[in-house]
């Protein structure tokens, strides 16, 4: 007993000493949440709330790292990195560039709780950018490509019967030197292009499951028929022996039950007075999904869903309007890049993650366009709970062909290599599958401003077929084709209607970009820009209101949605409603909320 107590004390002292050595790297601006980082308790919240189990183990924290030439194996490690912050970020404690000619290696040890004996152990990664190889106890357990989607590995056969286990992860990311989806990352940041993000940037965790367990759930709603449709995927090789039960709750009250055998879709009849989800009343039903194999319940997960419907219709003036739950809604929100000065792709805390969404609601918006980035699962859950419609972009990559903005495209589309096209299709499908269950997502955006745009009509049809429950905006501000549900124009700085499609919803996918550089809150104090720049909050607010009133006048002429650039400053861009460090709101909030609310309610009848 004394030896075990002594060992525990030694481990605690070593852990405390290691934590004391960690500190943010560099001298760039930081958010207030950076001060709350505890290396021993980093992002402790369960990372997958759409399919949650009670028993799990967080592997975030200090790992060892090494950056070495591509193709070589490290003989030693350089120091510690705080997972899950990208190695280039301040909060990683490293702040180093990797580049396409090097690889980033991680190493740590972990133990498996004794209570998990006899269970399968899943190793889960929220996201790793871009190509990850994983070993447990020097046994290769898996590989994954794609910087924006989660993946899980069954590591049970590689685990030691007793004691610690060694986990090693190798990452390669060519950033802008490769054709893979990368969004705004480049090897040489400037202007609208930002710092590279390499490696683990979302939570890593372990989870015990039975041999027969749930691997995925897929939920859709039909408000016209008052039905929920639930598909449950499992690990079983013999689905005929499985029985799935889905319970739906309004708070603690059970309102509906559905059951299914043999992997069949479970149709659940909801009450006639089923509550609908919308930004003013974002009601969510909780769900409990239980799997029975061989006569006993082997897995149970908690989830949630919503009754809602995204569609379009032509109004009495012949203008195609976006609809939510069969009602016209003018969707209006900011372009949200999702970058952080201290964590880059990764918000310092869950409180920080929800902050931008809450401020978007406070400003009077009802929508967010998530711009060429995909967020951790918890971000979408916060949108579901707070009531924000999300337009989800596909992260861009590859080359930029010619750009035609205000006509149907007459040029030659980009011809991607076979490898590049396969990479795009794989990750876009994984993104859609990953985010399918989140009620907030109303629009898929495969391309932005012709960045990597190819086979537009084919990709649009493929996207729509893969998920017919959402609208598809084929090319935001890009090369336009008569396909999908939306024609999306960009115009800076002021709103104008230069092109119109009578057969689809016409939207202003980007405008604004009103800049204000505030000393003490700048990423690059001597090198920053906005589409237009002013010197005071009043000037910015007045210009914003002027543009908003111009937009309001364009709604009866044909616009059905609009996106203002942007939520926050990002690196050298100073055109945010808030500073990059989130410490200053740069506009008069009540005035902005008033005019935004007028726009969002413009189609209410």
* Helix vs. strand class: alpha/beta
Proportion of strand residues: 25-35%
The low-confidence parts are 1-15
Provide the spatial order of strands within the biggest beta sheet: 30-28-27-26-25-36-33-32
Mean pLDDT, to the nearest integer, reads 95
Write down the overall geometry. globular
Q: Would you give an account of this structure?
A:
It contains seven helices and 36 strands. By secondary structure, the chain is an alpha/beta fold. The chain is globular.
Protein traits:
605 residues, alpha/beta, eight-stranded parallel beta sheet, six-stranded antiparallel beta sheet, 7 helices, 36 strands, globular, disordered N terminus
Brief write-up:
The chain is α/β, with parallel strands linked by helices. The chain has 7 helices and 36 strands.
SSE blueprint and pairings:
Elements (H helix, E strand, L loop, with lengths): L1 H20 L35 E2 L2 E9 L9 E5 L18 E9 L9 E6 L2 E2 L1 E6 L2 E7 L5 E4 L10 E8 L26 E2 L3 E6 L4 E9 L4 E8 L7 E9 L2 E9 L4 E4 L7 E2 L2 E2 L2 E9 L2 E10 L4 E5 L5 E5 L2 E2 L2 E6 L13 H13 L4 E4 L6 H10 L2 E5 L24 H18 L5 E5 L1 E2 L7 H11 L4 E2 L2 E2 L9 E5 L14 E8 L1 E3 L15 E3 L2 H18 L4 E7 L23 H12 L5
Parallel strand pairs: 25-26, 25-36, 26-27, 27-28, 28-30, 29-31, 32-33, 33-36, 34-35
Antiparallel strand pairs: 1-12, 2-3, 2-4, 4-10, 5-9, 5-12, 6-11, 7-8, 7-10, 13-14, 14-17, 15-16, 15-20, 18-19, 20-21, 22-23, 23-24
